[in-house]
Please model this.
Amino acid sequence: MKKLVNDVHSVVKESLEGFQLAHSDVVDVHFDPDYILRAEPKGEGKVALVSGGGSGHEPLHGGFVGFGMLDAAVPGAVFTSPTPDPIKEATAAVDRGAGVLHIVKNYTGDVLNFETAAELCEMEDIEVRSVIINDDVAVEDSLYTAGRRGVAGTMLVEKIAGAAAERGDNLDEVTRIATEVNANMRSMGLALGPCTVPHAGVPSFELGETEVEMGIGIHGEPGYRRTEMRTADELTAELYEKVKADLPFESGDRVVVLVNGMGGTPLSELYIVNRKVQELLEADGIVAARTLVGNFVTSLEMPGVSLTLLRVDDEMLELFDAPALTAGYRKGM
Amino acid sequence: MKKLVNDVHSVVKESLEGFQLAHSDVVDVHFDPDYILRAEPKGEGKVALVSGGGSGHEPLHGGFVGFGMLDAAVPGAVFTSPTPDPIKEATAAVDRGAGVLHIVKNYTGDVLNFETAAELCEMEDIEVRSVIINDDVAVEDSLYTAGRRGVAGTMLVEKIAGAAAERGDNLDEVTRIATEVNANMRSMGLALGPCTVPHAGVPSFELGETEVEMGIGIHGEPGYRRTEMRTADELTAELYEKVKADLPFESGDRVVVLVNGMGGTPLSELYIVNRKVQELLEADGIVAARTLVGNFVTSLEMPGVSLTLLRVDDEMLELFDAPALTAGYRKGM
Model:
């Protein structure tokens, strides 16, 4: 295993230290337990948003802490849920009396630990709601998951619900919007190869020289089939058709498109995927109102891509367009 | 070779099409010949900045076209200089009567083709200046280069000179600032593995299971030595010492730090490298005035990292902090 790490047991801590040193204008990292807060928290009355989960998906979640998105992120070990204690502490740290929304990707460990943390918070009279993100259409149950997995669409929930909290919506409203975003988005990914978790030291799975894993999870969990390598257009069309058919997205819908790199794919290839996505959307009469292309929700250095479509109304689009200032995403600031 | 491409001969064209579809608010891609312009060009009197070079380094250069940075970028085939014609056309398209600065990475093909394009422009009374970027301290001459190579620091020249042009500096002034940035910055990179150029179909070089190429070029050109894999801190210290000793950077200097991913390295590892860089700077009494960590000047999916230090004065820092709105870099907009 060749990785730019020192000790496999201190990967997350050292990475957080380097993150803090790069972004002290935006974030304030707390250690032992580890969580990331905004450098300049908003005052009384604002609903706070907390997310978290295993590390290795950067910039998610810590890279989305800041104005217009999250108030705190709680990183676990690589691909491992954080325990309830840091979640509880981070939640208490950001509560300003207006309540806290937990944004939780649907993995058994995350759901359980955020739930326990929420119970601990309620014992201290902190009001906590949760939205469980399950945008991945690839498989119904999976390694680590009952039901569908939460994947790249999580970033869109953090952006849009974050903007709602920023404009002063109350906890009911922010929860409603986050829930609606989740309900209106679908995602699916593919991998051309595995990634290597530092403390495991070996690739998370094996793929043949010409094989592709369709429906890959963001921890390298199996998808729904392995296929022979095909052209970018053919692979993209398979992602698109699965995603589209599931909601389903229909002619006249307006969507936010997220073409998300899994970490090890050149930006130029993500744009080739986007080209085909936009062609398919146009043929179906679906309007790409906004498009994001880049590495937002990664799986370490995995080569691959995921496609997320989010059906938007005027309100969601307005919130998507609102300013944000985080280490991993910036708009209008 | 597993890549998200269709035809290896149309990689750049299709990628540009997908780029245009994602960023039509910022860029306007011209095809045959291929170059990227700002969607909303500034009017009369502004000095224009044009850069370009082989594709495969995205977001450089096309991702840095927009307010506060470049007026045009000219992409060649992957790792291959664009020919004089598109450079000439792009230059003519962005000239507003105040002259054009060419920002050219020091590779024989690029230098020659930009030079020829400049001569063609002068025949049409377009005033063109050039700054040759040669920030790589690794080797003095190299595959494709006489003298030092231009690498990740190019992005800092585009940012700072772009801001100078935006505030209304004339061609002499913009050229002076670009030249000063180049003179005050030094870079070096390392690779943990190769990348694969699509039309070549095989990795650009081979590295043993535990080998690292120190001083790698952004096209996979050899560095100054191969070494056994060591810890991130040890590898980072070698980059830092080479970069520091060359200018040299000294106690009391203020610097902009750029920890740049080569494409296939997880963000978490780049932050581990940044942690060590900041520790070394502090020990040397060098002030990290600003820090950038991310994939800005890549080599397709190469796993690796480069370090750039730029010694800044108040003017450079003010220009670095000025607003920018491009597909690949945003600040204050």
Remarks:
- The first strand of chain B starts at residue 27 and ends at 30.
- The first helix of chain B runs from residue 11 to 22.
